[in-house]
Every structure is written in structure tokens, then in C-alpha cells.
């Protein structure tokens, strides 16, 4: 009888131990950082997820938008020398005559900046975006975030 009781206790102990959940420690290798129970990309090492940086930058640009601004149907918005391109897979050419600070976010956008635009600052967020700049834009301040964004120069 004692054997059955001991055997029963062992079975219950095995079931109890086997059914308890264990918290697994998440380890993120650079350039990824731990956020909660997962990892996210942080290519510039500032401890902010790149996807969050892109949306934060977009929010800052959108704060400058006023009611009388008319965005183009193509997704380019420019107001008071600040502009943004968002959305997905847009093909844009910006012919803005003046100083421009530009944010390119979203995914898969290709933006060409005309030679007459005095581009001051370019911020890339999102992923798989490409910005084409003429060679006279070689002194532009460029901030690259996001993933797989590219800059191409043309004459």
C-alpha cells in the first residue's frame, strides 16, 4: 500500500512540475534591443526602436500641418519649408523652390528631389525607401533610421 501512495505522490509531483510555466529570458543581440518580452531594431544605438522613431518623427512633422494646407494626392505634404512623404510604394518628384526639411517614412517609397530644391535636412524612417538627390545636394544633413533605406545621387 505504501508503494502505491509513494507512486501516486511521484506522479502528482511530476505532473505539477511539468505543468508549471517558466518565464524565459529574452536575449537580444545588437543592433536589437529588448522591449518587454521581445526584441526590436535599434540601428543607431539610441535605445529607441527604429519603428517608434519613424512614427515619432512623423508626429513632429504633422504638428506643423495647418488647416489651410492642401496635401497632394500623391502623399507629399509641404508646409513652411517642412515636408513629409509617407504611405507605401509612392513614386514622387519634389520640385519645391526653397529651403526644405524632409521626412520620408512609410515603406517602399521612391522620392526624387529636384535640383532647384535647397534640401537642408533629410530624415529617413520606415523601410525600403529610396531618395534620389542631385549632386548639388552633397552637403545635406542626413539622418537614417528605419530599415534598408537608401540614398542615390544623380547628375
Could you characterize the architecture of this molecule?
The structure is a single chain. By secondary structure, this protein is α/β, with parallel strands linked by helices. It has one domain. The chain has 2 helices and 11 strands; from the N terminus they run H-E-E-H-E-E-E-E-E-E-E-E-E. Strand 3 (76-79) and strand 4 form a beta hairpin.
Compact summary:
The chain has a five-stranded mixed β-sheet, covered by helices on one side. A four-stranded parallel β-sheet has the order 5-7-9-11, with no helix packed on it. A two-stranded antiparallel sheet has the order 1-2. The protein contains two helices and eleven strands.
Number of helices: 2
Q: In one word, what is the shape?
A: rod-shaped
Rg computed from alpha carbons, rounded to a whole number of angstroms? 26 Å
Q: Tell me the series of helices and strands, N- to C-terminal.
A: HEEHEEEEEEEEE
Low-pLDDT runs of 5+ residues are: 58-73
The domain tally reads 1
Task: Report the sheet with the most strands, covering strand number, pairing sense and barrel closure.
Answer: 5 strands, mixed
Structural class: alpha/beta
Strand fraction: 25-35%
Distance between the termini: 93 Å
Average residue-wise pLDDT: 75
Amino acid at each position: 500500500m505504501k508503494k502505491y501512495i509513494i507512486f501516486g505522490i511521484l506522479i502528482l509531483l511530476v505532473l505539477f512540475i511539468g505543468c508549471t510555466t517558466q518565464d524565459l529570458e529574452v536575449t537580444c543581440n545588437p543592433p536589437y534591443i529588448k522591449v518587454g518580452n521581445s526584441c526590436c531594431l535599434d540601428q543607431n544605438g539610441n535605445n529607441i526602436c527604429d519603428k517608434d522613431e519613424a512614427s515619432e518623427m512623423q508626429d513632429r512633422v504633422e504638428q506643423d500641418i495647418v488647416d489651410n494646407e492642401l496635401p497632394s494626392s500623391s502623399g507629399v505634404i509641404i508646409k513652411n519649408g517642412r515636408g513629409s512623404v509617407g504611405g507605401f510604394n509612392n513614386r514622387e518628384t519634389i520640385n519645391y523652390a526653397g529651403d526644405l526639411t524632409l521626412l520620408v517614412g512609410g515603406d517602399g517609397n521612391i522620392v526624387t528631389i529636384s535640383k532647384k530644391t535647397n534640401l537642408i535636412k533629410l530624415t529617413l524612417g520606415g523601410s525600403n525607401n529610396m531618395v534620389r538627390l542631385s549632386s548639388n545636394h552633397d552637403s545635406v544633413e542626413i539622418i537614417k533610421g528605419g530599415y534598408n533605406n537608401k540614398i542615390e545621387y544623380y547628375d
